[in-house]
Amino acid sequence: MGRSTRMRRVIVAAVAIATVWAAGAAAQQRAAGARDFDGEYRAAVQAAKDAAAFEFLGTLVRTCLLPQSGGENTSDTMPDFVADPKKAPARETWYAEPAKVFDDLYFVGGKVHSSAADRSP
After folding, report:
1. Structural domain contains residue 97
2. Is 61 in contact with 52 (CB distance < 8 Å)?
3. CA–CA separation, 62 and 22 (whole Å)
4. Could you count the other beta carbons within 10 Å of the beta carbon of residue 56?
5. Tens of pLDDT, residue by residue, the chain (121 residues)
6. Confidence (pTM)
7. CA-CA distance, 31 to 57, in Å (whole number)?
8. Which domain holds residue 108?
9. Domains in the chain: how many in total?
10. Could you give the 3-state DSSP secondary structure of residue 35?
């Protein structure tokens, strides 16, 4: 048997093994079914509650739990004022001047959304 024949057999065997392995992995994924994201979320929050005990409940609530819905618009529709700027709310209802808060820390944003900017080098 020549060297090229042996090499061809090794390649065919490797491809066959890879095919069987891939088919097994695909079957295992199908058997596992769809993930239960809601269950995973509940389990993660419960684990965080258990870990925090009664020491860090404020942090847990601020970072892990969603606030009660205040009737926000969650649809994916564009506001009227984007298409027609004349329908935009009055500037005094949302605009806030940038202001120096401390040393190199500045407030930037508006009355509804805000942020801070640091000018340190």
Report:
1. yes
2. no
3. 43
4. 14
5. 566 677 677 676 676 676 767 777 666 666 567 788 888 888 887 887 777 777 777 777 777 666 666 666 667 788 888 888 888 888 888 888 888 888 888 888 888 777 777 777 6
6. 0.33
7. 39
8. 85-121
9. 1
10. coil
